[in-house]
User: Which sequence fits this backbone?
């Protein structure tokens, strides 16, 4: 709302244009003295008074309070919806350009909610492009813009920031952000089903990566319970994608695939191509864990091609790590090594966890070629990356591999140190980035996990 003097001058101008006296404008709810005081800028009108006067003057409350025609805000909101659709079905850089234009318009008009929405869109675009620091900045600014709003209005910004930190390998901080928001919702009695499902679905991934399986299962259970009350189908689909991870951790491959099929059906109907690609990615992983390497390769290549076409560099690189594992298991070592080398040439911009996974795979292939020294180098590099991220399942598996290598080369004490480190990060099904979990042979039907991308906020 503008200052009282500006509002008063606007009321006086509109009243004069319509040929109304102060008494006529005030009747029947107010007095002419009140209108006179308002027009002189000596009183700040209430929202109720402005809505009454706007109706008498044949204008909108927004135009009377801010001087902006109501249709400008409406048109901007429609344009933001179109930009969201562009992000869902087109390339992220095209959507980002549109969001930047709309952000500038919203800032010029002083429309704070629309500024926040544009920032959320820019954050999602940056996630797809792999620009994680930029994404975090946009989500933080979106959260600042709506800082005075109830938490359900801030949930998407919190979730976006947590996802960016998760993709950067900062698992514990991602959990902290999401858990804090969930606790705040509970403490404030803000039982908003959309916000709760959004946050609980988002926290499943980091929980699984850190080996907190009971917490992940609890969040999955709560999300499934709330799903019938959620109004956004894309949110329900994203929830099914994340719940599939908990099913895999329990060895329930068929349930995991059924959950992914539900998500894939919804994404197909909504034409959300990035999310649909993620479903192909996940199903490829499930097939690989079942030993169906040919179909797994086809699913992963489909995911990679879809993401590459959208120029989603971060996710494309991450799928290629999964694909390289399948190619290695198919005996196509050189092709797998080429994928991994290209990814590592880009540095660690695609996340410490996946860079660590790439080094782990290269270490395995070096061992298979009998190059023990080279394998050790890759395992050590992977260990440094994963220790920073806190991915406990991956760390445990890697310590086992390194310990076995050191023992075979006669360095028993060093091997014992590696095993002891691994015991502190004991792996369980569903927590390793690639390949079967170390305990798979001990439990029939057990499978490994996958570092899948979190569901996108639509």
Assistant:
């Amino acid at each position: 709302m503008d200052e009282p003097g500006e509002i008063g001058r606007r009321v006086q101008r509109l009243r004069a244009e319509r040929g109304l006296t102060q008494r006529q404008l005030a009747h029947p709810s107010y007095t002419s003295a009140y209108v006179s005081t308002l027009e002189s800028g000596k009183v700040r009108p209430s929202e109720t008074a402005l809505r009454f006067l706007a109706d008498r003057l044949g204008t909108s409350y927004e135009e009377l309070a801010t001087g902006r025609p109501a249709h400008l805000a409406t048109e901007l909101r429609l344009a933001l919806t179109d930009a969201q659709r562009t992000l869902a079905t087109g390339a992220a850089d095209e959507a980002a350009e549109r969001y930047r234009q709309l952000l500038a318009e919203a800032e010029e008009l002083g429309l704070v909610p629309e500024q926040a929405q544009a920032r959320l869109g820019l954050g999602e675009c940056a996630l797809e492009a792999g620009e994680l620091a930029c994404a975090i900045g946009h989500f933080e600014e979106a959260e600042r813009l709506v800082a005075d709003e109830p938490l359900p209005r801030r949930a998407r910004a919190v979730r976006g920031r947590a996802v960016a930190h998760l993709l950067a390998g900062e698992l514990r901080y991602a959990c902290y952000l999401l858990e804090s928001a969930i606790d705040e919702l509970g403490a404030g009695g803000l039982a908003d089903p959309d916000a709760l499902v959004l946050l609980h679905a988002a926290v499943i991934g980091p929980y699984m990566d850190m080996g907190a399986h009971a917490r992940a299962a609890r969040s999955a259970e709560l999300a499934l319970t709330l799903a019938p009350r959620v109004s956004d189908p894309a949110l329900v689909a994203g929830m099914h994608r994340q719940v599939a991870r908990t099913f895999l951790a329990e060895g329930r491959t068929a349930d995991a695939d059924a959950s992914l099929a539900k998500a894939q059906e919804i994404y197909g109907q909504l034409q959300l191509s990035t999310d649909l690609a993620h479903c192909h990615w996940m199903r490829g992983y499930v097939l690989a864990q079942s030993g169906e390497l040919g179909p797994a390769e086809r699913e992963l290549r489909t995911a990679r091609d879809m993401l590459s076409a959208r120029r989603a560099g971060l996710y494309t690189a991450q799928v290629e790590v999964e694909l390289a594992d399948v190619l290695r298991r198919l005996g196509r070592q050189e092709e797998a090594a080429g994928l991994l080398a290209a990814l590592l040439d880009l540095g660690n911009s695609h996340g410490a966890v996946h860079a660590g996974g790439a080094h782990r795979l290269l270490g395995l292939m070096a061992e298979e070629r009998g190059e023990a020294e080279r394998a050790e180098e890759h395992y050590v590099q992977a260990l440094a990356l994963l220790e920073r991220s806190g991915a406990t399942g991956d760390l445990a598996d890697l310590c086992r591999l390194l310990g076995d290598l050191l023992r075979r080369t006669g360095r028993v004490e060093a091997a014992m140190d590696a095993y002891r480190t691994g015991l502190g990060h004991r792996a369980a099904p569903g927590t390793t980035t690639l390949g079967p979990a170390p305990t798979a042979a001990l439990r029939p039907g057990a499978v490994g996990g996958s570092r899948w991308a979190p569901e996108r906020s639509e």
